[in-house]
Design brief:
Oligomer: single chain
Helix content: over 70%
Order of helices and strands: HHHHHHHHHHHHHHHH
Structural class: mainly alpha
Shape: globular
Number of helices: 16
Distance between the termini: 47 Å
Radius of gyration: 21 Å
């Protein structure tokens, strides 16, 4: 059962995400005309590379901040994750210094020096996410919401300003990203009620030992998951260059990124709630089923619109040079819809201590989707075919793990999955039929 305060808390998070998205979407109209697909491709590649390391910068100990029952212990887990973030970021800097040119050639980067931004982005973003989980634990959803708005407004503001009054030479999209993330971290540090060094080394070592399953199983699972979802960017960069990567990156921004904001807001509140009632199967199952129903019916109409008319929407928003982005939207949108539904419930792995299952699933997902991309390029010879293969395999695997989550909650989702597929198919058929009548 979903109580009123669940929607209130989720609403607080979503309101901040919505404002942040409005800022970002409004800016895309101008940014798409101010920067080239190659500029967008470079920042997409850098952010995806950073994302791989962000996923494991704290060795996933930060996920225990919400799960831990004792508040003082939770504070020590926060400290532990922040120390690990800094250490791993320093290691990444050393790796970039050694392999910058090799990585630049492999990913077809015009400016390999952008790779030096990766350790900085990893440290800033992973630290921000750890502190956000602390605020999630203490239900400071207003702070989380305002932080997202601040990040979007400051970063987007710089990206718009850069072509006219650059503070630094280089890719304005990249610099704006760092500016926004830095301001967001400073905002959270100002409000942080935890003294970083007010603990002992032994306490941190004991906690690291107690939650070592997060490091041993959840960390590899997290890196496999981010590699799988980022795989199109890496493969497109290597095999088709930064222009195609830019097309794909903006397809992502126009589709899954808005959805991910809602799923993140709902997922954070769901994580806190399900951690408290995980042993109450009836209540957990009822709440999960109500939530998946709500998410499906919120998303289905926008998804069908993008599936049918995405090829016209992208150039309208971004400009005429972005027609290929519209095609990528149509290919990927159903996969993004399954990601949207799955992400809201993915905390079930941590909540029910199914970290080995998470690791195994993410390995299968990575191997299968990489194989699909590779075969798509080998047999089809182009990015469109490769993405179609990737999306098809991804949809099947996402629906499978979503049903597994609901078995953990107490009641399977098989009947609703079949119904959802039928509804989506019928609406897609009607949409394409209508498009054929309007645009013969």
């Amino acid at each position: 059962m979903i109580k009123k305060d669940f929607f209130k808390n989720a609403g607080l998070l979503f309101s901040g995400s919505l404002i942040a998205q409005i800022i970002g979407f409004g800016a895309l109209y101008f940014l798409g005309r101010m920067y080239s697909p190659e500029d967008f491709g470079e920042i997409e590649t850098i952010m995806k590379l950073a994302g791989v390391f962000i996923a494991i910068a704290g060795l996933r100990y930060e996920m225990a901040i919400v799960v831990e029952n004792d508040s003082n212990q939770a504070k020590d887990i926060l400290r532990l994750s922040l120390f690990l973030n800094l250490t791993i970021s320093a290691i990444i800097l050393g790796v970039v210094m050694c392999f910058k040119n090799t990585m630049g050639v492999f990913f077809n980067l015009n400016n390999p020096n952008l790779l030096f931004g990766i350790p900085l982005i990893v440290w800033i973003t992973s630290s921000t996410e750890s502190i956000i989980l602390w605020h999630n634990r203490i239900k400071k959803f207003n702070t989380i919401s305002s932080n997202r708005v601040l990040f979007s407004a400051s970063g987007t503001g710089y990206k718009l300003m850069h072509p006219f009054a650059p503070l630094l030479n280089g890719n304005g999209l990249f610099i704006g990203q760092i500016v926004g993330q830095s301001i967001a971290l400073l905002h959270l540090l100002y409000k942080l009620p935890v003294r970083l060094f007010h603990t002992s080394k032994q306490n941190l070592l004991n906690l690291a030992k107690s939650y070592r399953s997060f490091a041993f199983f959840s960390s590899p699972a997290a890196i496999l998951n981010i590699l799988a979802t980022s795989m199109p960017v890496f493969v497109i960069s290597a095999l088709d260059g930064q222009q195609a990567t830019g097309y794909f990156g903006n397809a992502y921004k126009l589709t899954y990124l808005p959805m991910s904001m809602l799923s993140l807001a709902v997922g954070q509140v769901f994580f806190e709630r399900i951690a408290r009632i995980r042993d109450q199967k009836e209540n957990a199952s009822q709440m999960a089923h109500q939530l998946v129903n709500t998410l499906f019916f919120i998303g289905i109409i926008p998804i069908i619109i993008l599936l049918v008319w995405g090829d016209g929407i992208a150039p309208l928003i971004l400009g005429s040079q972005w027609e290929e982005t519209g095609i990528y939207i149509q290919i990927m949108i159903l996969f993004y819809f399954t990601m949207f539904l799955t992400s809201s419930f993915s905390s079930a792995f941590e909540t029910y201590q199914k970290l080995k299952v998470q690791l195994g699933y993410n390995f299968i997902f990575l191997a299968s989707t990489f194989g699909a991309l590779y075969l798509g390029y080998t047999l089809g010879g182009n990015t469109r075919t490769a993405l179609a293969w990737f999306a098809g395999v991804g949809i099947v695997l996402r629906l499978a793990i979503l049903n597994y989550f609901f078995v953990l909650f107490g009641k399977n989702l098989i009947a609703k999955t079949i119904f959802a597929i039928l509804i989506t198919g019928v609406l897609a058929y009607l949409g394409f039929s209508l498009k054929g009548v309007l645009l013969p």
